[in-house]
Specification:
Layout lengths: L12 H10 L12 H15 L10 H13 L7 E4 L9 E6 L8 E6 L18 E3 L2 E3 L7 H16 L8 E6 L10 H8 L1 H4 L3 E3 L5 E5 L2 E11 L1 E10 L3 E2 L8 H14 L8 H11 L4 H11 L5 H8 L2 H4 L5 E9 L5 E2 L2 E10 L5 H12 L5 E6 L11 H14 L4 E7 L5 H6 L4 E2 L6 E2 L11 E3 H21 L1
Parallel strand pairs: 3-6, 3-7, 7-17, 8-18, 9-16
Antiparallel strand pairs: 1-2, 2-6, 4-5, 5-19, 8-9, 10-14, 10-15, 11-13, 12-14
Helix pairs in contact: 2-4, 2-15, 4-15, 8-9, 9-10, 13-15
The chain binds zinc ion.
The site of zinc ion has 7 residues, from loops.
Amino acid sequence: MSLSRSVGALFAASALCALAATAGAAPTASLVPPPADQALGRALLKELIEIDTQHDKGSTVAANAVAARLRAAGFADADIAVLAPADHPTKGNVVVRLRGQGKAKPILYICHLDVVNARREDWTTDPFKLVEKDGWFYGRGTIDMKSQDAATLESVIRLKREGFKPKGDIIVAFTADEEAGGDANGVNWLVKTHRDLVDAALVINPDGGEAGVKHGKKLYLGVQTSEKIYVTYGLEITDKGGHSSRPTPANPIFHLSAALARLGAYRFPVHLTDTSKLYFAGRAKLESGQVAADMLSMASGQPDPAAVERLSANTETNIDFRTTCTATEISGGHAESALPQRAKATIQCRVIPGEPLDGIKAQLIQVLADPAIKVTDVYPGDASPESPPAPKLLKTIEAVKNSMWPEPVLLPIMSAGATDSAFTRLGGMPSYGVDASWDDLDDGRAHGQDERIGVQVFDEEVEFTYRLMKALASGQ
Ligand SMILES: [Zn+2]
């Protein structure tokens, strides 16, 4: 997934004007790769976009195409593994290793090859053709995440050609099945069954990155260090029912709706992690007035209750500092003239990493405050931890960003949605989402129709990916 969160919804007009005054430098030629690498990046993007990797098609064809490119670039067969679970032969993955000096543990890049389904009739172009139009590349996966796949593949090929020797190995895993249900999720499968192939001290997941643009101005480069853990509960209440002419207080629909109203009014406690404190400190630089002051208050870790109140009123900031649980489905009753015998609801929670999941369930039961309602686990959640926002790593990323774009701030981010990094974090490997596919916060098209990336943005993403890969592999 790509994580456009409309983080810019808050930006005050005055702050934007101030930013606009410093903006405007046209992208310079030096930010795109050398011509041969620029051409290779685009060729890889075209090849990957034009291999249909929707859920039912799978990713094995794409994995084989990537492997062929790697072989042509001089990688030894022993350093390329194409593999799929025996019961899911179409859900292929390819893992490549650029050998290092053995002076550091490997860095692993994870890049999913599959895309969200796209229907030709919903699009103005063929989603499985790379179409260049008015300075944009259109195609399914141009934002999520075949541009990043192409950029990562191009970078590892470029480093190989240049004879670069990383301190430790660079491993890149191009994987299956991130988007749709994940019955053969490649990252999960590789971590659990081929740990030796992907074991690393550091994981970079370009899919988790977020590079925010508003009104044409680059605002921030996000580094995703963590993501909220999603947990699903079922609520159910039953009664013997009866004739609707004789209502009773035991009516399950009334019980359930009263309990849901209590949950709707409830706010989980404020919980600021290391990441969210840094996030608010960075975000404050992009804001002004009261909002900036409130964010600095959050960044202190001891926020003023009035600041909490104001930031809670905004959906986009509320989710950054507390667990949320919301009702997503409801059903009940069986006949127009009968007292209901049953009422059910589904509750989805997004939990701040580090909060014990059984504690969430206990709070939920307490808030519902109705012993007649049975609470069951529908999806128990994987308690993936936060990866520490390590200062040295953030400095390296910031230096690479500054070499291309000094103005936008670096923003550590906990995302509210889920990525494959949950599996590597669960496997004990600190994981960071970062990429530079600069995307308009007001026109996010990932998973949507007419998905596109700026041509210049893509070329620069290729260059950024190369620079970052080289810096990380030089400095560990
Ligand atoms: Zn994605």
